[in-house]
Amino acid sequence: MNADLAALSNQFIYAAMAVYTLALITFAIALAATRGNTVTVERTRELATVGAGGPAPVGADAATSASDATELAPGRRSGNIGMSLTWLATGLLLIGVVLRGMSAGRVPWGNMYEFSITAALAVAVAFLVLSLRHDVRWLGVFVVGAVLLTLGLAVTVLYTESAQLVPALKSWWLVIHVSAAIICAGGFTLSFVLSGAYLIRARGERRSPDGLPAGWLSSRLPASAKLDRLAYQVVAFTFPLWTFAVIAGAIWAENAWGRYWGWDPKETWAFITWVIYAGYLHARATAGWKGQRAAWICVAAFAAFIFNYFGVNIFMTGLHSYAGV
Question: For residue range 129-144, what is the model confidence (pLDDT) as tens digits?
Fold first, then answer.
């Protein structure tokens, strides 16, 4: 083990946490300044295009349009700063994770601490990838908050000194199985945040007699239909990878312990998580369950996923008790 690299990894992770904290503050400012759906991103882009050289009004009308474009995006500058800080923090976290692996001469997910910091990285990357196709600045305060919470638990409660793997983990299946599970952690966390945002927004829409969402937070979120659709797309992308992770885990179990499946607590809860997410996708595809019922299934599935990670490892004894995977 290289103690210097391990210490340097810790420094990069703490630096990432500091930058994520700044990003969280700027995202909160942006969300507070947002005026809800009274102004749409499409309209803002339309006016921005006009100001950039499209068919534009002349004289005083042109100045008014440029002014309107600025007013139609309250908090957008803070949101842009938040996104830039998130990219920077994620880069620092990536370096910290890589250095952690280099310090031990292996992949950096051999215990709960390492899985947590890598899962936090996966959540941040999933958010940034989504931001390349959608304007999700409003989502930043929730995602970055989840990343900070995960990193905070990792460095304060779950921290373990860099060390060699126990014999059962010395396999290429560690790379295959756990890397898939880490990516799923990012996708499932993002879908949970989207479903939670949907429930808040939908409640505000139901309580409003004039069609405008009621409530401070609800009025600052996108339309419920969009949130519902995004959550479904993220789960539909992530679920096949979770299926692969469960199968890969079974193959690894046969190599390590001589059986594919033994209803170990970790295996059982991985299967329960799979069943609930499968039920979510099946309900949407066949029964037409959209909206609130589907969102609650997604929340329940994520709760099972989190219990599979924290609850099983902390409160239950099994063959997986020595690690966070």
Answer: 999 988 888 899 999 9
In words, the CATH class of domain 1-39+74-161 is mainly alpha
Q: What are the sequence ranges of the domains in the chain?
A: 1-39+74-161, 165-325
Outline where DSSP puts E strands in the chain: none
Identify the DSSP state of 165.
P
The amino acid occupying position 296 is W
pLDDT digit string (tens) for 271-319?
A: 999 999 999 999 888 877 778 888 999 999 999 999 988 888 777 665 5
Cβ-Cβ contacts under 8 Å for 324 (sequence gap 6 or more): 109, 111, 112, 113, 114, 115, 116, 158, 309, 313
Residue pointed to by tokens 């210097």: 4
Q: What is the DSSP string of 194-263?
A: HHHHHHHHHHHHHH-TTSSPPSTTGGGS--HHHHHHHHHHHHHHHHHHHHHHHHHHHHHHHHHHS-S---
Question: How many other CB atoms are there within 10 angstroms of residue 11's CB atom?
Answer: 13
Residue 26 contacts residue 81 (beta carbons within 8 Å): yes
